[in-house]
Amino acid sequence: MKIKTRITYPEYKRIMLLLSFRKPRVIFFLIIIVLIIINALFRSMNNRQYIFLALFLAYTVFVIFRMRGAIKKSYDSNLRLQGEIEYDITSDKMKITGTSFNSELDWSTTYKIEELKNWFLVYGSAQTANLIPKKDMTDDEINTLREIFRNLHTVKIKKLR
Protein backbone atom coordinates (compact mmCIF):
# COMPACT_ATOMS: atom_id res chain seq x y z
CA MET A 1 0.00 0.00 0.00
CA LYS A 2 1.45 3.37 -1.03
CA ILE A 3 0.75 6.69 0.70
CA LYS A 4 2.07 10.02 -0.57
CA THR A 5 1.99 12.89 1.87
CA ARG A 6 3.52 16.19 2.89
CA ILE A 7 3.46 17.46 6.48
CA THR A 8 2.96 21.20 6.85
CA TYR A 9 4.29 23.21 9.78
CA PRO A 10 0.82 23.76 11.36
CA GLU A 11 0.16 20.01 11.22
CA TYR A 12 3.58 19.24 12.68
CA LYS A 13 3.11 21.80 15.44
CA ARG A 14 -0.29 20.34 16.38
CA ILE A 15 0.95 16.76 16.58
CA MET A 16 4.08 17.71 18.52
CA LEU A 17 2.08 19.77 21.04
CA LEU A 18 -0.44 16.93 21.38
CA LEU A 19 2.33 14.43 22.02
CA SER A 20 3.99 16.79 24.52
CA PHE A 21 0.84 17.66 26.46
CA ARG A 22 -0.21 14.07 27.00
CA LYS A 23 2.92 13.13 28.94
CA PRO A 24 2.19 12.33 32.60
CA ARG A 25 4.54 15.00 33.99
CA VAL A 26 2.99 17.69 31.81
CA ILE A 27 -0.54 16.60 32.79
CA PHE A 28 0.52 16.67 36.45
CA PHE A 29 1.98 20.17 36.00
CA LEU A 30 -1.22 21.41 34.33
CA ILE A 31 -3.37 19.92 37.12
CA ILE A 32 -1.22 21.75 39.69
CA ILE A 33 -1.74 25.01 37.78
CA VAL A 34 -5.51 24.52 37.68
CA LEU A 35 -5.61 23.70 41.41
CA ILE A 36 -3.58 26.80 42.24
CA ILE A 37 -5.93 28.97 40.18
CA ILE A 38 -9.02 27.40 41.77
CA ASN A 39 -7.46 27.92 45.20
CA ALA A 40 -6.76 31.56 44.35
CA LEU A 41 -10.36 32.14 43.26
CA PHE A 42 -11.92 30.73 46.43
CA ARG A 43 -9.51 31.98 49.07
CA SER A 44 -8.30 35.37 49.99
CA MET A 45 -4.59 35.53 49.36
CA ASN A 46 -1.89 37.89 50.53
CA ASN A 47 0.33 39.84 48.14
CA ARG A 48 3.13 37.27 48.31
CA GLN A 49 0.79 34.52 47.14
CA TYR A 50 -0.47 36.65 44.24
CA ILE A 51 3.11 37.33 43.20
CA PHE A 52 3.90 33.59 43.35
CA LEU A 53 0.81 32.80 41.28
CA ALA A 54 1.69 35.46 38.70
CA LEU A 55 5.27 34.18 38.43
CA PHE A 56 4.09 30.58 38.18
CA LEU A 57 1.64 31.44 35.37
CA ALA A 58 4.27 33.55 33.58
CA TYR A 59 6.70 30.63 33.75
CA THR A 60 4.05 28.32 32.33
CA VAL A 61 3.41 30.66 29.38
CA PHE A 62 7.18 30.96 28.86
CA VAL A 63 7.59 27.16 28.73
CA ILE A 64 4.77 26.80 26.21
CA PHE A 65 6.18 29.51 23.93
CA ARG A 66 9.66 28.04 24.25
CA MET A 67 8.25 24.64 23.29
CA ARG A 68 6.59 26.18 20.22
CA GLY A 69 9.92 27.77 19.27
CA ALA A 70 11.70 24.43 19.57
CA ILE A 71 9.05 22.80 17.40
CA LYS A 72 9.45 25.50 14.73
CA LYS A 73 13.23 25.12 14.81
CA SER A 74 12.91 21.35 14.54
CA TYR A 75 10.59 21.61 11.54
CA ASP A 76 12.64 24.27 9.76
CA SER A 77 15.89 22.35 10.18
CA ASN A 78 14.50 19.04 8.90
CA LEU A 79 14.27 19.30 5.11
CA ARG A 80 13.27 15.63 4.88
CA LEU A 81 10.17 16.33 6.92
CA GLN A 82 9.14 19.32 4.79
CA GLY A 83 9.23 17.54 1.45
CA GLU A 84 6.88 15.02 -0.05
CA ILE A 85 7.20 11.59 1.56
CA GLU A 86 5.99 8.31 0.11
CA TYR A 87 5.32 5.36 2.39
CA ASP A 88 5.15 1.89 0.86
CA ILE A 89 3.72 -0.30 3.61
CA THR A 90 3.47 -4.08 3.34
CA SER A 91 3.09 -6.89 5.85
CA ASP A 92 6.91 -7.33 5.80
CA LYS A 93 8.26 -3.79 6.02
CA MET A 94 7.78 -0.09 5.48
CA LYS A 95 9.73 1.74 2.80
CA ILE A 96 9.97 5.52 3.14
CA THR A 97 11.07 7.64 0.21
CA GLY A 98 11.59 11.39 0.15
CA THR A 99 13.25 13.78 -2.25
CA SER A 100 16.67 13.22 -0.66
CA PHE A 101 16.41 9.89 1.16
CA ASN A 102 15.29 6.27 1.08
CA SER A 103 14.70 4.22 4.18
CA GLU A 104 13.46 0.72 4.82
CA LEU A 105 12.14 -0.46 8.19
CA ASP A 106 11.61 -4.09 9.04
CA TRP A 107 8.65 -4.60 11.37
CA SER A 108 10.76 -6.76 13.66
CA THR A 109 12.78 -3.67 14.65
CA THR A 110 9.74 -1.42 15.13
CA TYR A 111 9.15 -0.31 18.73
CA LYS A 112 5.39 0.31 18.50
CA ILE A 113 2.57 1.60 16.31
CA GLU A 114 -0.09 3.99 17.54
CA GLU A 115 -3.18 5.43 15.92
CA LEU A 116 -4.44 8.90 16.81
CA LYS A 117 -7.48 10.69 15.44
CA ASN A 118 -5.61 12.15 12.45
CA TRP A 119 -2.33 10.21 12.45
CA PHE A 120 -0.60 6.87 12.48
CA LEU A 121 2.67 6.93 14.42
CA VAL A 122 5.23 4.23 13.65
CA TYR A 123 7.89 4.33 16.36
CA GLY A 124 11.38 3.13 15.56
CA SER A 125 12.30 3.73 19.21
CA ALA A 126 10.57 5.11 22.29
CA GLN A 127 11.54 8.64 21.24
CA THR A 128 11.27 8.75 17.44
CA ALA A 129 8.31 8.12 15.17
CA ASN A 130 7.42 8.27 11.53
CA LEU A 131 4.35 10.49 11.23
CA ILE A 132 1.75 9.29 8.74
CA PRO A 133 -1.15 11.74 8.43
CA LYS A 134 -4.55 10.33 7.57
CA LYS A 135 -5.50 13.44 5.58
CA ASP A 136 -4.02 11.97 2.39
CA MET A 137 -5.72 8.58 2.79
CA THR A 138 -9.17 7.32 1.90
CA ASP A 139 -11.27 5.44 4.46
CA ASP A 140 -10.49 2.18 2.64
CA GLU A 141 -6.75 2.89 2.80
CA ILE A 142 -7.00 3.69 6.52
CA ASN A 143 -8.81 0.40 7.14
CA THR A 144 -6.29 -1.52 5.03
CA LEU A 145 -3.43 0.03 6.99
CA ARG A 146 -5.13 -0.85 10.29
CA GLU A 147 -5.46 -4.44 9.08
CA ILE A 148 -1.77 -4.60 8.13
CA PHE A 149 -0.83 -3.26 11.58
CA ARG A 150 -3.19 -5.64 13.40
CA ASN A 151 -1.53 -8.60 11.72
CA LEU A 152 1.94 -7.61 12.94
CA HIS A 153 2.48 -9.91 15.89
CA THR A 154 6.01 -8.74 16.71
CA VAL A 155 5.06 -5.06 17.15
CA LYS A 156 3.39 -3.44 20.14
CA ILE A 157 0.14 -1.91 18.86
CA LYS A 158 -1.48 0.92 20.77
CA LYS A 159 -5.03 2.13 20.17
CA LEU A 160 -5.95 1.02 16.67
CA ARG A 161 -9.55 2.06 16.09
* Number of domain units: 2
Mean pLDDT: 89
How far from one another are the termini? 19 Å
Q: What can be said about the biggest beta sheet?
A: 4 strands, antiparallel
Tell me, briefly, the overall form: elongated
Strand order of the largest sheet: 1-2-3-4
In what range is the share of β-strand residues?
Answer: 15-25%
For the secondary structure, the number of strands is 8
Gyration radius (Cα, Å) is 20 Å
CATH class of the largest domain: Mainly Beta
Helix content: 40-55%
SSE run: EHHHHEEEEEEHE
The number of helices is: 5
Decide which structural class fits the backbone: alpha+beta
What is the structure about, briefly put?
It contains five helices and eight strands, in the order E-H-H-H-H-E-E-E-E-E-E-H-E. The longest helix has about 30 residues.
